[in-house]
Amino acid sequence: MKLLLALLAVVVVAAVVIALLRRRRAVVPSAPVAPRDPFAAEDSTAGDPRLLKAGDMVEFLGERMFVRGSLRLTEGGYTWSEHFLDTMEGTDAGRRWLSVEEDPTVEVYLWAEYQGEEELTPSRTPLTVHGVTYHRSEHGTASYRSEGTTGLGESGRVEYADYDGPTGRALAFERFLGDQGRGTWEASLGERVPEGTLTIYPGSGA
Predict the structure, then answer these.
(1) 149 domain-assigned
(2) Pick from 69, 85, 110, 181: CA 20 to 30 A from residue 61's CA?
(3) Structural domains counted in the chain
(4) Residue 20 lies inside a defined structural domain of this protein
């Protein structure tokens, strides 16, 4: 009889311990889900333009272009990138490149070299080009680091002036600074790339 009572006591104690452990596990709060930006670039099925590099391919409005090289630019604590493109079509559109900056949202612009009879310099504002009026928004000097094929050295400095136009249009000037002084201004016309219209195909080294 004593043995039976002892066994019952053990069973009761074990059941109480198991119940307490289950209750303990049930009340342990789960880790809260961190708030997330629903429009973050990493959620895009088209890829993250902030990760572009030489060897990648991009497609915009049915046109495919290879990234030949990149400039990583820094001014103070602010950074952005310019990616030089090869259209693979042998067109006469001149130089093309893609700029990517985060301020605070990711902004992507596709640029083409200005081709016109009038010589452009950022000496005044506003500027009217091909019937479109642009107003200067930024001017400064940045340091750059070159990757891949850009036609520039590994590092250097560049002066820039940016102009904003209507409906996502832009005008930009750059001149590279070297031992021989300031280079000549290079003008480019750009258009903002709407979110979801650019597809990125990572290169083989991804």
Answers:
(1) yes
(2) 69
(3) 1
(4) no
